[in-house]
Amino acid sequence: MRAAAGDAGGGRGPADPPAGAQPVASAARLRLAFAAAGVLLAAADTYVVVLALPAMMGDLGLSLDHLEAATPLVSGFLLGYVALLPLLGRLSDAVGRAPVFLGCLVAFGFGSLITASSQALAPAVAGRALQGAGGGGLVPVALAIVADRWPAGRRGVPLGVVGAVQELGSVLGPLYGAAILSVSSWRLIFWLNLPLATALGAGFVLSGGAARPSASGPAPSPRADLAGWLLPGLALAAGGLAIAAPGPLAANATWGVLWGPLLGGSAWSTPLALAGLTSGVLAGGRWLIAGGRSPRRVRLRRLRATWRRVDGLGSVLLAVLLAFVVVSFSTADPRSSLVAPAAAGLLPAAAIAAALVVWREARSDAPLLSPSELRDPAAAGAFLCNLAVGAGLVAALVDVPIFARATAYPGSQLGAALVLVRLLAAVPVGAILGGLVCERLGYRLTTLSGMALATAMFVLMAGWGASAVGPGFRAASDPVLVGCGLGFGLAIAPVNAAILGAVAGVRHGVAASLVVVARMVGMLVGISLLTAIGLARYDQAARSFPRCPGGALTCPAYDAAAQAALLDELHAIFLAAAACTALAGVIGAATLRRHRGRAAGAIAAALGA
Questions:
Q1: Which residue of 7, 31, 318, 548 could cross-link 442, Cys pair, CB 3.0 to 4.6 Å?
Q2: Which H or E element spans position 227?
Q3: pLDDT, tens digit, for every residue of 110-162?
Q4: How far apart are CA 134 and CA 109, in angstroms?
Q5: Tens digits of per-residue pLDDT, 489-538?
Q6: What is the pLDDT of residues 87-102, one digit of tens each?
Q7: Are the C-beta atoms of residues 319 and 368 closer than 8 Å to each other?
Q8: Does residue 75 fall inside a structural domain?
């Protein structure tokens, strides 16, 4: 077992280059640039639905008076994003970063195609779930590429860059969506994902991302396999056209026959759909039963071996556990309950799934993380720290716009949302700054500094009055929001570097994915818990609301009391968020240590961090 002594840093797994090794090759930087661009595209798509949701609801036949009906469009994306992350991360460890990265881009693009062409809620939810699965898988792969290509003591900046572009998506996504909605339909947002994902995949391959070095030298060049390329290409093209049904072609007297159902009214019986399904089955069959003639194909016995290497059963059980948690919390109405009504059955099932995961991992020959790695304080600390960070961050994302809407922007949802941009824009800046300093100051000190700053800003938010937020630069709110965003950003690189240093190189992908999952679960649980705390404060204040003979709608005294109670509720949530970020800082300071593979920097050593 590797000792966990010294300062905040990354230990050296088997795949890590030695400290002070050769400069990182320019090809690795270019490869990371394309991977980071993929993370940015997926992150922007996560938030683009914020402004597009009303238009999507109208086109999908949902009433704008019932926003809860559109919840599956959001929860479906989260379900795909969170549940499959560990499996995708572990798969990238077993078969290589490039195949998983390219596969995730394909899934993201195909999900975008389904969403863009949907005419009803169910296919739109399925498309968003597929987008979430593909987009979420890009993040751990990008983080693992950093761990694979950069020495342990030089990962801070590239990890900060990956964290920065992921957070930048929260700023660019709504702006990008607003720009497209101003000139076209919401569908164009998702159609544009197809050429963008294709360009990123091509750039990743051309940069060398698909190369897989062999210990025995370069692999022999495979023979040209025309059918091996044409069949999957035909499956994607025919399937995409069958789903999209572009109007000029589908309504054409000649070409429209390709979209005409052959069996009743089933969309799966159209000539295009049947051609896509047949081509896909033939391509899959060739892929599974191909002999050794083509090293690019995976045979059935290799699939079984890969399933064992990624601990397929453990990964599936963990995916089931995460799915139950996501559905229980993401579909809840925090104003009535901490969890969704279905959680009465889902959470006990999640507890059973958790017990099965523990049982499986204790007996697996290839566990997702080895017991010695899980006992490492840096590994456990990274998970717990990110869990608390997520709970604090979600309070800012949700409740800052609510505060702005209740005070300065009562008639403008857009104006209230733009207040949050001050915080969101500061997070990527803090992420890069954290990457620059964490290898010098240490992971513990950098994380503690960031969380202390975020905690202080939440405490200041808890004292905001009704005039604190407003148009233009306002000294009462803007510096606080910027400082809070910088604090959250500072913790991104050291937390990621700590977990990547605590595990062996062969598990970088799954470790990175579990840290991302921890933050997402923290956000889901945090929004329910913190909102419940705030509502308890509101209900207490509501007992003393003045009685209005003419009705509450025409009573200024009632309006004033209601606004005061709402502000009191938000103040309570901000204080609870401060407790979460303070806890994250304490956990980070106590656990995020550098292993003996790297000496602490002079500043960190002097401070004992």
A1: 7
A2: helix 226-244
A3: 888 888 888 788 888 888 999 999 998 899 899 888 888 888 778 888 889 99
A4: 8
A5: 999 999 999 998 888 888 888 889 999 999 999 998 888 888 888 888 87
A6: 888 888 888 888 889 8
A7: no
A8: yes
If one counts the domains in the chain, the total is 1
- Tell me how far apart the 2 most distant CA atoms of the chain are, in Å: 88
The per-residue pLDDT for 492 is 93
81-90, 481-490, 551-560: the lowest-pLDDT one: 551-560
Residue 248 to residue 271: CA distance in whole angstroms: 17
Q: How many CA atoms lie within 13 A of 472 on its CB side?
A: 3
The one-letter amino acid code at 193 reads N
Amino acid type, 375: R
215: burial class by Cβ within 10 Å (0-12, 13-18, 19+)? exposed
What whole-number distance in Å separates Cα of residue 123 and Cα of residue 370? Answer: 39
d(CA 319, CA 119): 29
Residue type at 392?
G
Instruction: Assess contact for 385 and 519: CB atoms under 8 A.
Output: no
Q: Hey, what are 556's tokens?
A: 């200024």
Provide the token pair at 239.
């399937």
Separation of alpha carbons 344 and 284, rounded Å? 40
Residue numbers of the domain that contains 442: 26-210+367-607
**Is the confidence at residue 595, as pLDDT, over 70?**
no
d(C-alpha 142, C-alpha 81), whole Å:
15
In the numeric block, the tokens 């559905």 are attached to: 327
Cα separation, 105 vs 92, whole angstroms: 14
pTM of the model: 0.79
Residue 321 located in a structural domain: no
Q: Residue 400 domain-assigned?
A: yes
CB 524 within 8 A of CB 463: no
Q: Is residue 159 situated within a structural domain?
A: yes
Domain CATH code at residue 384: 1.20.1250.20
CA 231 and chain centroid, separation:
32
Contact 541, 563 (CB under 8 A): no
**pLDDT at site 433:** 94
**Can you give the length of the chain in residues?**
609
| Residue 487 amino acid letter | G
**Residue 442 Ramachandran class (φ > 0 left, ψ -120 to 50 alpha, else beta):** left
